[in-house]
Design brief:
mainly beta; lipoprotein; PQQ_rpt_dom
Length: 395
Amino acid sequence: MMVLKRWLGAFAAVAFLAACSSTEGPTYAELTNITPEVNGSVVWESKVGSGSEGHYSRLTPAIQDDVIYAADRHGLVVAMNAANGNRIWTQRLGGRTGILNRWFRGESARISGITAAGSLLFIGSENGTITALNSDDGEVVWEQKVPGEVLAAPAVGEGRVISHLGSGYIVSLSARTGELQWTHEEEVSLLSLRGVSQPVISSGGVIFGTATGKAVVLLSATGQLAWEERLATPSGATELERLVDIDGSPLVIGGSFYMSAFNGELVSLDLRSGEAVWKQNHGAWRSPVQAGTRIALVNQDSHLLSIDRSNGIELWRNTDLFNRSLTEPAVMGTYLVSGDRFGYVHWFNRTNGRLVGRLELDEDVAIQGAVQVAGENLIVQDANGKIYAISQQAR
């Protein structure tokens, strides 16, 4: 039976919920003066194609061995030297080439995610394909069709490539050949945020969240269900209030992992049994990030939280940038660094959460994917396809 599924862009969903929650006051935080203790500066920048082509996309570069692998949604894939941004190779993926005014640029490959693992680079596409490239020269090694849109970067481990599809399927492919090994199907919701939880492969399990608010662990060898645990239950008067998507990737540390649901809870779960160690009411669609003995989490209101990993106690919360759609933060020294939908990068003091630095990249060009670390620099990709390497200096 065909299931009708309506996608909702995460930015649009958050903005709509914010507008519905109050008829007074600003819908997002305006920037105010800060006392800076860190400066950010652009070391180099490079342009990769046309970016997200006006679509919501969390496409971010993959970084491995001082090489940055980046792509635009249309199908351009490049490898760049992390030190200076110089291109090492270029590959173009996609369908038919352009003809006059129809498909002028050719059919879009609709690239949604990149994962680097050893000698191979794995590319997910909303066209329902996963492609493996040679990471040394960009040549295609194999391509496999899968039963749904690939909306997040594939997970790679234990000789497998595992992808969570928009259709609700989880698929496992051989990393070497692309051969289909197993599939697992999860229920999808009629209304969902535009995204899925990127799986994590750990200790013989495949861990991910669903659009129906559940944390799930499958056996990586067979795809059989090991256990599942509900993080959120739909409630409220409207469909938007009843959203319970888990779009963030689980954070695995030792024998536990951490995951949060939209309109739900942040939960620490035992990896083997699924038993909840603690639960806190922190709804989010971004992934939690490890910051020493703490967890950094951007909740669905774009508040940045620091949480004690052992018990879930909130240590501090910064609300200065509410509804600016902060990305998952990168951990850089004593700071947390996050981008927003207006083209700014922000620095927060890890100890107390104070906003201590700011850098504008390209005015009103959204940063949708997580800020990353490459050596001593931060790497940011914006919606127009610009890649920035940014250094930070204490004042």
